[in-house]
Amino acid sequence: MLKEPRPGRVKTRLAQDFGRTNAALWFRNQSLSLLRRIEDPRWETLLAVSPDREGLTSRVWPDHLPRIPQGRGDLGDRMARIFHRLPPGPVCIIGADIPGISRRTIGNAFRSLGNHDAVFGPATDGGYWLVGMKRNTPPPPTLFRNVRWSTEHALADSKVSLPNHRIAHVDTLADVDTLADLKRSHRTT
To answer: How many domains are there within the chain?
Structure first.
């Protein structure tokens, strides 16, 4: 899932201490680096873009990667729409602001779906950088309902929205929401 990297539209918490333009440039460079790192013949990389119209026609993102609009609503509405919209089969959704994502971490998530209905890649702040579903049955109507987004409860709330699903966890990674997160990410890379 990607947002068009415009100052003031992306990484707003990071922008408070880093500046809107710097935050947007960081997000753009991080996203493009991520796309290069994760392309792999084992899966199709599809860009879910926002805002819909600008994202679909953007010259920022690689032309060879197919795009779909995220649509309206909160993060849960937009992710649920992706799970409902794509053809049957396993799907993993990732965020673009996690420097530690690699082919290995995504491959681990897809492998986990062999024995589980859903998989989460926890983030160090209580959220998650990846959510995946096997999708051999339609997602439940409760999917991502009542999730407290951008809090330490996001992962726990999301798991509750998947009743009777066998859920796996893969690597815990750090996302970049603040300047302190960004500095920490540079120390670990």
So the answer is: 1
The CATH number of residue 150's host domain is 3.90.550.10
Average pLDDT in the chain: 96
pLDDT-based confidence at residue 186 (cuts at 50, 70, 90): confident
Tokens of 91: 């799907």
Domain that holds residue 170: 2-188
Residue 92 to residue 133: CA distance in whole angstroms: 7
For residues 86-123, one letter each, b for 16 or more C-beta atoms within 10 angstroms of the residue's C-beta and e for the rest, the string is beeebbbbbbbbbbbbeeebbbbbbebbeebbbbbbbb
Tokens of 46: 């599809």
Given pLDDT bands bounded at 50, 70 and 90, which one contains residue 65? very high
* CA 96 vs CA 50, 56, 83, 137, 161: distances in Å: 12, 17, 18, 27, 23
Across residues 129-135, what is the average pLDDT? 97
Indicate if the pLDDT at residue 189 is higher than 70: no
Tokens 């798991």 locate to: 159
Question: What is the distance between the alpha carbons of residues 27 and 10, in angstroms, rounded to a whole number?
Answer: 7
C-alpha distances out from residue 79 to 7, 157, 189, Å: 24, 14, 29
